[in-house]
Design a protein that fits this description.
The complex is a heterodimer of chains A (343) and B (288).
Chain A: H1 3-12, H2 22-34, H3 38-44, H4 52-84, E1 91-93, H5 94-100, E2 114-117, H6 123-132, E3 135-137, H7 142-151, E4 158-160, E5 166-170, H8 184-189, E6 192-193, E7 199-200, H9 203-215, H10 223-240, H11 244-254, H12 258-272, H13 293-300, H14 312-326, H15 329-341
Parallel strand pairs in A: 2-5
Antiparallel strand pairs in A: 1-2, 3-4, 4-5, 6-7
Helix pairs in contact in A: 1-2, 3-4, 9-10, 9-11, 9-12, 10-12, 11-12
Chain B: E1 3-9, E2 12-18, H1 21-30, E3 44-49, E4 61-66, E5 76-77, H2 81-96, E6 101-110, E7 113-118, H3 125-133, E8 138-141, E9 144-147, E10 154-155, E11 161-164, H4 166-172, E12 184-187, E13 190-195, H5 199-203, E14 210-219, E15 224-228, H6 230-240, H7 244-247, H8 249-261, E16 264-269, H9 272-287
Parallel strand pairs in B: 2-3, 7-14, 14-16
Antiparallel strand pairs in B: 1-2, 3-4, 4-5, 6-7, 6-8, 6-9, 9-10, 11-13, 12-13, 15-16
Helix pairs in contact in B: 1-2, 6-8
The chains are: A alpha+beta (343), B alpha+beta (288).
Chain lengths: 343, 288
């Protein structure tokens, strides 16, 4: 049994932590660290009977994640204060949103940057407000800066000069040049408020964004974490809506993300055991495997027992795929040419 | 990985993997006398690897990897593999350890009470600790001192001491040659030679010590002792800590308590003998 398989089995609850040997643990801890998921695993195994050194290490991770999460929510509060003056509405995305909404996947989840979504018409004012409140531009390169502004779905990253924390201000959830163009206006309009007073995406929109982020925007690096988020989002939302699958696919269809979301469901089912349910009414929903699902699974599980990424060719293939999805061929050629000349 | 070993230093269990046999053999010699629990999983992983397969043999160069990496770190030649291993282990602790507040500081202890010495590299904190460790003190570590947020106690991280440049000759004359590693000449950090701590320091590595003195040594210039206020000690130690920010409130509480309860001094000294004498003088006053 490979380390990464043992790791996902532990998360999925298919393996009893008490049966792991020292060697198994070495591999699982290494893989979990490489995926930035050791605290997630620690929260998952909080009730498990573990040998003292492992229990102590995992307790450290839980405590650290709690602090990190408090810091991430504080950062959201700072953004709220900065954007309050001009009454700019914003929606939290990804990790910070999961924490603010108290969702299951927030337990132990690492949160990097603060990601927020604003209306496209507000993006200039939002940038000004943030600059006045102490955030600064990170990228000084004019090509990169122009690239972000002309083609991406977010401003060039801003970093706060005192707190050294990054904010990504999005106006939609996929690059503007992407083959798929979700409807950001609907995402903003359907956003809901959390008890803490922050706005987050509606449940189906949140799951759509998670799937899009995992499968349509990037080369699946850190994919196991995003897929774990997706798995737990689906489980959480099924509690209030037993036909959440239909709600989710309907929402996905309005954004052109139905294929992406269905694939995320199939992959989550195969890796984490997410329950799936087929429908024939009001519309047909089935989860037949596609020929390339296996490639995604292999890419997601490509780590050795030292936490080192394996499958170089597959990695490269997914890297190229991510660019292919992100921009039309002529533009891709121009972009790569510019980047290559600047090396 | 082709070659690997397991090392426990203080509370941290490492596993170190390598594409080459030499760095592992070097580590195993330095850490042969350290207690080892084979059933204990690794808290931290270090990988020493060749960026391209042929670089294992052709101008072999050692990249440092593991749980945490520094993106632009330059590789080292295989002759400095032991230094690469040391840097890799330090990196994992500095970026990954959360159980204690980490201070980039050396420490020595006597009767369960510790002197913590913090300073930039070149301040002589490692050399002073190594020399005191040969002179009646328990060496707790030359690189990191760990502060337990719950109790305020200092915990040891007695890795093999990394002696640099002039300190090599200064210490080598006083210890049994079997306790010295190979000379690594002309590394990016100058000449380096490792010193295996005394057996009693290794045996006591899990015993906590109460902080009794905070010193900020500075090598060079006239001998001088300058009392330091809590505020300055606090700010200096936030800069010397690699996980102060990550620990949040617990880090703030631990550091506040440390500077409130522990007298702090800046110590300037022209040579090691004077430095040691000043430390002993401050110690005598502190424990009186």
């Amino acid at each position: 049994m490979s380390a990464v398989q043992t790791f996902v089995d532990l998360l999925a609850g298919r393996r009893d932590a008490a049966t792991l040997t020292r060697r198994d643990w070495d591999g699982v801890i290494g893989v979990a660290r490489a995926e930035a998921m050791l605290a997630t695993l620690a929260c998952r195994l909080e009730q498990a009977a573990l040998r003292p050194p492992v229990a102590a290490l995992l307790a450290d991770q839980r405590a650290a994640a709690e602090v990190a999460q408090r810091q991430a929510l504080w950062e959201a509060e700072m953004a709220r204060r900065a954007l309050k003056g001009q009454r700019i509405e914003f929606v939290l995305l990804k990790g910070t949103a999961y924490a603010a909404a108290g969702l299951s996947c927030a337990a132990g989840r690492q949160i990097g940057d603060l990601d927020i979504l604003v209306l496209r018409s507000d993006i200039g004012r939002a940038e000004n407000d943030l600059l006045e409140a102490g955030w600064e531009w990170v990228k000084s390169d004019p090509y990169d800066d122009a690239y972000y502004r002309d083609h991406m779905h977010e401003l060039p990253p801003l970093i706060h000069k005192a707190r050294d924390r990054m904010i990504d201000v999005h106006h939609t959830i996929l690059p503007q040049t992407h083959r798929i163009t979700p409807d950001a206006l609907i995402l903003m309009a359907e956003a809901i408020e959390t008890p803490s007073g922050f706005r987050v995406l509606s449940p189906p929109a949140m799951a759509c964004h998670c799937a899009a982020h995992l499968l349509a925007d990037g080369d699946l690096q850190g994919g196991l974490r995003n897929l774990w988020d997706f798995h737990l989002l689906v489980l959480d939302f099924l509690k209030d809506d037993r036909d959440f699958y239909l709600t989710l696919i309907e929402e996905a269809s309005t954004h052109g993300l139905a294929k992406v979301v269905k694939r995320a469901l199939r992959l989550a089912n195969r890796i984490y055991g997410t329950p799936l349910r087929s429908y024939s009414w009001p519309f047909r929903l089935e989860f037949e495997r596609e020929w390339d699902d296996d490639l995604f699974i292999r890419r997601l599980l490509a780590r050795d027992e030292w936490g080192h990424a394996t499958g170089f060719a597959l990695q490269q293939a997914f890297y190229i795929r991510s660019h292919w999805l992100r921009m039309p061929p002529a533009m891709l050629a121009r972009h790569l040419w510019t980047k290559w000349r600047k090396r | 990985m082709r070659h690997s070993t397991r090392i426990a230093v203080g509370p941290v269990q490492f596993r170190v993997g390598s594409d080459w046999a030499e760095p592992i053999a070097g580590l195993e010699r330095l850490y042969a006398a350290y207690p080892q629990d084979d059933a204990r999983p690794a808290d931290a992983t270090v990988r020493l690897f060749a960026a391209r397969p042929w670089r294992r043999w052709l101008r072999p160069s050692v990249h440092i990897g593991g749980d945490f990496i520094v993106p632009d770190a330059l590789p080292l030649p295989l002759s400095m593999g032991l230094l690469a291993a040391e840097m890799g282990m330090n990196l994992q602790v500095a970026l990954g350890w959360r159980r204690h507040m980490l201070l980039h500081a050396s420490a020595v202890a006597k009767h369960g009470r510790a002197i913590i010495m913090s300073g930039e590299s070149g301040s002589g904190k490692s050399t002073l600790a190594a020399l005191l460790g040969e002179d009646g003190w328990r060496l707790m570590g030359d690189e990191f001192t760990l502060i337990d947020p719950a109790s305020g106690d200092a915990f040891a991280f007695p890795r093999a001491v990394s002696l640099k440049n002039q300190a090599i000759a200064e210490v080598a004359g006083r210890v049994d040659p079997s306790r010295l590693g190979p000379l690594l000449a002309g590394t990016p950090k100058g000449d380096i030679r490792h010193l295996i701590p005394r057996a009693d320091a290794i045996a006591a590595m899990h015993e906590p010590a109460r902080p009794a003195l905070l010193l900020f040594p500075r090598f060079g210039g006239e001998a001088a002792i300058e009392p330091m206020g809590e505020g300055e000690a606090f700010v200096r130690l936030t800069e010397a800590s690699t996980n102060y920010v990550a620990l949040g409130e617990a880090g703030f509480a631990a550091l506040t308590r440390l500077v409130r309860e522990t007298p702090a001094f800046g110590v300037s000294y022209p040579d090691s003998a004077t430095g040691m004498a000043l430390v002993e003088q401050l110690w005598a006053e502190a424990v009186r």
